[in-house]
Amino acid sequence: MAFEMDERLAGSSHFIEDWGLCRVSLKNDKNWPWLYLVPMRDGVSEIHELSPEDCALLADEIAFAGAAIKKLYNADKINTAAFGNMVPQLHIHVFGRYKTDAAWPGAVWSVQTAEIPYTVDEKNTEIQKLKNCFAEMRGDKTACQQ
Amino acid sequence: MAFEMDERLAGSSHFIEDWGLCRVSLKNDKNWPWLYLVPMRDGVSEIHELSPEDCALLADEIAFAGAAIKKLYNADKINTAAFGNMVPQLHIHVFGRYKTDAAWPGAVWSVQTAEIPYTVDEKNTEIQKLKNCFAEMRGDKTACQQ
Question: Which domain holds residue B40?
Fold first, then answer.
């Protein structure tokens, strides 16, 4: 059976692509460049419930996502978090922070910020930029030459 | 030169022990069972700045810390976060959450909670419990039989 992403995660983000372990999506909020990484493993809520192999893969994909956000959006700092207090399906937030953003230097959760959804065009543009960035970082010449 | 932990991290926590990659300490706040994991690598601020080997080790140690907190403190959920907006030295927060805690189900950063420091006796007790738990989980028979 195909992996199913929790509807609250799917409903608050736009699918980008699947990696070796994680489904990667863009949080539908223009306040910050923000990715969800969701390990495609059923019934896993905690990082320590992953197999050692998946755990190493997760670290690699978190690092990759952070490096991409840093590179593409010129973020001042990458923030990474796995809570899951509301949505038990294991998901990791990886997002860029700026010294000028509304919550800096606090956690984004320390301020109430209204979400700003992407328009359809904006969403399509960001997803393509992210896909190209990921491909370039992976050394995928075909994608780079497009 | 020996690794030096940022004074703000060292000053807000109690040293427990060094693992393969991380210095592990107990945040000096009884509100939550809370560990700091600080990779003993100079000049690293982001997860993606670690070598691939260190990155895999970090994932392993984050998972181990989470499993220990779950086991020892019977936490309802493990929360994990790496921000570093104020203290650039890479450090990972791994802590236990409870359905009855002051911030549940929100992020702990969404509420203002006064820190409750451990007394010296309490601190010593918790550190010993954590050391024993880590040793037991590592299958260290000597420590288990104490």
Answer: 7-137
Residue B37: inside a domain: yes
Q: Which two tokens stand for residue B15?
A: 């040293």
* A99 belongs to a structural domain: yes
The distance from CA B25 to its chain's CA centroid, rounded to whole angstroms, is 6
* Phi, psi dihedrals of residue B11, rounded to the nearest 5°: -75, -15
How many domains does chain A contain in total?
A: 1
Query: Closest partner residue to B107 among A52, A56, A83, by Cβ?
Result: A83
In chain A, the residue whose alpha carbon lies closest to the alpha carbon of B76 is A85
CB contact under 8 A, A58 and B59: yes
Looking at residue B15, the DSSP 8-state letter turns out to be: E
Each residue of B12-49: pLDDT tens digit? Answer: 999 999 999 999 999 999 999 999 999 999 999 999 99
How close, in Å, is residue B79 to chain A by CA atoms? 5
Look up the ipTM and state it. Answer: 0.94
Tens of pLDDT, residue by residue over A37-93, are 999 999 999 999 999 999 999 999 999 999 999 999 999 999 999 999 999 999 999
Q: In 3D, which of B47, B69, B70 has the Cα closest to residue B59?
A: B47
Q: Please check whether residue B1 lies inside any domain of the structure.
A: no
